Fold this sequence. Notes:
Oligomer: single chain
Strand order of the largest sheet: 1-2-3
Amino acid sequence: MSNYRFFQMKRDDESEWVRKNPILQPGEPGFSRDTNTMKVGDGILRWTELPRALGPAGAIAVITEGVTTPLVIDVQ
């Protein structure tokens, strides 16, 4: 039996994210397929107000208990 878990984040093209302009729940990620960017919700700000968490370089910083560790995501 496998210990792997399936995780699928919300994803759409940037034009649809902007059109819908949702408020993502705290910690909820959203991925823009055509701009290759990710944003993480705070439960307050709308999509267009959130800063990017993932840029075209394909890496973000994950902060866990005060330790910052780079996380590389292959989005090919």
